[in-house]
Amino acid sequence: MVRIPKSTTDMQIVGIEKYGPREVPEFLIDKFEVTKQAVQAFVDAGGYANAAYWTVPIRDGGKRFR
Fold it and tell me: Which distant-in-sequence residues (6+ apart) come within 8 Å of 54 by Cβ?
C-alpha cells in the first residue's frame, strides 16, 4: 500500500469543472494492481484464514474484524 497525502485538486472533468477545486483527504491505495484471479487464488488457498497474513487489525469504524 502507498499513502497518498491530502491535497487539493481541480475538477478536470467536463461538466463539473464549475464546482472548483476540492480537498481530497489522505488515503491508501495498492502499489500493484491485483486481478480478480489472484484474489480468488488467495481465497482458495485459505489466505483469509491464515493469521500470518493479518498482522494489523482490520477495522470498520469501531468494529474490529480480526
Answer: 66
